[in-house]
Amino acid sequence: MNKFGKVAVLFGGTSAERAVSLNSGSRVLAALQGEGIDAHPYDPAEQPLDALKGYDRAFIALHGRHGEDGTIQGALEVMHIPYTGSGVLASALAMDKFRTKLMWQAAGLPIPEFALLNEQSDFADIEEELGLPLFVKPAREGSSIGVTKVKMPGDLLSAYAAAAAHDPLVIAEKGVMGGEYTVGIVGDTVLPIIKIEPATEWYDYEAKYNRDDTRYLCPCDLPAARAERIQAEALEAFRLLGGRGWGRVDFLMDEDGNHFFLEVNTAPGMTDHSLVPMAARVAGMSYPALVCRVLELAAND
Prior knowledge:
Blueprint: E1 6-10, H1 18-34, E2 38-42, E3 57-60, H2 71-78, H3 88-95, H4 97-107, E4 114-117, H5 123-130, E5 134-138, E6 148-150, H6 156-164, E7 170-174, E8 180-186, E9 189-190, E10 194-197, H7 205-210, E11 215-217, H8 224-240, E12 246-253, E13 259-265, H9 275-282, H10 287-296
Parallel strand pairs: 1-2, 1-3
Antiparallel strand pairs: 4-7, 5-6, 5-7, 8-9, 8-10, 8-12, 10-11, 12-13
Helix pairs in contact: 1-10
């Protein structure tokens, strides 16, 4: 495994997802070291960028801002260090749910109806236009941070305020309630689709990371031909943003069986609850093999 040289595993960071990143990165680091790779931890919240000098590759296990939004990718570009995942533009686009939607909308991919919110928005009108329930979310956060499910008329304003505390760019999204799914991508391989069935009302932070009663169905309940079509479309959605290396595309189904793409994660979680390792395992790829494959795909823009 010396072909990788000296590898920095980037995790921790300063975003609201620091705790999740610490979990992901420590597991990635242990897996790489277990495969005999010369891997070392690097936390940008505690170490200067200069500390990355002399590294041959970087495995990005940072989540959220300054780790998944193109900024650390740009720094690594300047330092000529190949890194895992998408490049600067694709990372920035995927982190911005509003602009991701605009790209997919322009390409004719199915997305939930949405509205961009600000302090001057007619909240009652938007509630009526999108219908209830709807979801309000900061456009540039992950892990369901700052997200509110609005079920009662008149609650959109307070949901907007909760999201705006995390990001001035806030979107409201029509509730698509027929099921939540995700599909992982590693290189040119599209992994089996996972259906997510939270015991909570929706797949919030607790259901993602702290609860053991969330159910994951993989293979999922979709007919094989339908699943294959959605997998192909998910790869198209990923590549439309410029995605490369690896990532995860989330989508929803409505009660009539129509699918709607939700967002792309360009630095997916690698915790014991995470979805890409789960799908990879179903496809016959162990956690260490997955980590090594992702590292093998490291590149510069």
